[in-house]
């Protein structure tokens, strides 16, 4: 029988209370990994492996060895308009199933484990279900589907070839039968309590306002799975929020996490990929000949402190790094890629090491930016800006281009006058604050404050 729970313990305080009731000290060390299976994390539509960074850090802080985890990068992460018709820089469900099968094989070979766990965000859950049902999924012990539109973003008679159409052949094939899960694998679904833009009764988020989608907020739930409602989280937060981490960890490890907070390492080593957007389509195809420079910057002004900490140029594999940084340093990444705007990416300190610090150039400057002295962006890759749910302040003001209600926007843009070039600009999202510098648009430069949480 499918289970549903609408309240979960939140944060380190709740965990400390739980530990005290169980007689365990709140500062106890994480339990060894034991028989916890290796875990492969699967990103969503148009995304990349780096979105799982904070989840991987939390897993490490709870005793899961780094070498027993991996995060896939689908080559072309964006779905086709019609699954059966080829489309440049986009992937079919079969493309994703095939790439996922290879990543599973590699993790099993690396760890020697006969079975592994899969955790997917949004479209990543489609690939997971497709592999388990149609790809010989006997080697999957657990499947966690976070905000996956298991019954479609909509269920309409037109556009049946679209992967996200609940009446289309792909989802009908996955949902056929009395049970919507595959025997032998334990399934968990995580969903929002009404704030997932892809699980709405009205078609406004699918381009047809006023038209019923024939899908409800319960769309991500599956018959035969453990189905949990996380609360007022948005579509991406069903995978990347601390509440989601708690449930993912507990389901796979079979006990509560020791901690939710991310514990810093004494030395941090960073590396990743530079990927491109041919024709404006996000891909995970490597970009050769890109230059990555990293600077330590002042937290209050965004000004550089000394020269570059790291400089490298990507080869054919698109990889940059490694760079050694202090876990207390705010950073500026300067990405110069062929044919793109020079992108200045400002980040909060990295508390732990990561090999998936993937970088994409910002969008090109366009007609809407004409006459601007500087163009600055605030980006939230692991969630959306929710108003009035969240505190969102950009240069001291609530952004006008963030729509209230169901969270739908993960990027907000501000255009500054020529007199503002060079000055600091603060981006605030709840408890995270990043200060960047406004770089001249006349030099084809864009600055981005990229939030971690």
Automatic annotation (TrEMBL):
Residues 1-28 form the signal peptide. InterPro entries: AB_hydrolase_fold, AFL_C, TAT_signal. Keywords: Hydrolase, Signal. The keyword Hydrolase applies. GO terms for molecular function: hydrolase activity. Residues 268-364 form the AFL C-terminal domain. It comes from the Bacteria. This is Hydrolase. It comes from Bradyrhizobium brasilense. The lineage of its organism: Bacteria, Pseudomonadati, Pseudomonadota, Alphaproteobacteria, Hyphomicrobiales.
């Amino acid at each position: 029988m499918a289970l549903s729970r609408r309240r979960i313990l939140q944060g380190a305080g709740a965990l400390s209370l739980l530990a005290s009731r169980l007689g365990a000290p709140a500062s106890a060390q994480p339990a060894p990994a034991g028989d916890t299976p290796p875990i492969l994390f699967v990103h969503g539509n148009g995304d990349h492996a780096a979105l799982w960074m904070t989840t991987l850090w939390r897993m490490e802080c709870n005793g899961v060895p780094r070498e027993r985890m991996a995060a896939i990068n689908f080559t072309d992460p964006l779905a086709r308009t019609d699954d059966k018709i080829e489309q440049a820089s986009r992937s079919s469900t079969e493309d994703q199933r095939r790439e996922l099968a290879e990543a599973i094989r590699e993790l099993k070979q690396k760890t020697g484990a006969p079975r592994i766990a899969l955790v997917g965000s949004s479209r990543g859950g489609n690939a997971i279900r497709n592999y388990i049902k149609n790809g010989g999924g006997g080697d999957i012990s657990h499947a966690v589907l976070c905000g996956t539109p298991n019954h479609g973003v909509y269920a309409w008679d037109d556009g049946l070839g679209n992967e996200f159409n609940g009446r289309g052949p792909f989802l009908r094939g996955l949902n056929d039968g009395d049970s919507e899960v595959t025997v032998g694998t334990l399934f968990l679904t995580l969903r929002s309590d009404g704030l997932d833009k892809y699980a709405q009764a009205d078609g406004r988020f699918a381009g047809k306002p006023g038209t019923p989608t024939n899908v409800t907020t319960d769309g991500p739930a599956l018959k035969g799975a453990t189905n949990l409602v996380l609360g007022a989280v948005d579509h991406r937060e069903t995978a990347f929020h601390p509440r989601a981490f708690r449930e993912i960890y507990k389901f796979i490890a079979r006990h509560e996490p020791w901690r939710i907070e991310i514990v810093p390492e004494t030395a941090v080593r960073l590396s990743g990929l530079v990927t491109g957007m041919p024709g404006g389509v996000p891909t995970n195809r490597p970009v050769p000949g890109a230059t990555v420079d990293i600077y330590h910057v002042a937290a209050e002004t965004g000004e550089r402190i000394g020269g570059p900490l790291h400089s490298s140029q990507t080869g054919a594999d698109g990889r940059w790094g490694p760079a050694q940084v202090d876990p207390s340093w705010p950073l500026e990444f300067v990405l110069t890629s062929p044919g793109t705007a020079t992108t200045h990416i400002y980040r909060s300190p990295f508390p732990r090491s990561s090999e998936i610090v993937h970088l994409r150039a910002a969008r090109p400057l366009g007609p809407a930016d004409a006459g601007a002295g500087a163009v600055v962006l605030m980006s939230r890759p692991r969630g959306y800006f929710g108003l009035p749910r969240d505190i969102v302040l950009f240069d001291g003001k609530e952004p006008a281009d963030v729509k209230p209600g169901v969270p739908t926007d993960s990027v907000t843009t501000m255009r500054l006058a020529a007199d503002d070039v060079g000055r600091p600009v603060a981006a605030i999202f709840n408890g995270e604050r990043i200060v960047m510098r406004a770089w001249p648009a006349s030099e084809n430069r864009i600055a981005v404050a990229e939030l971690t949480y």
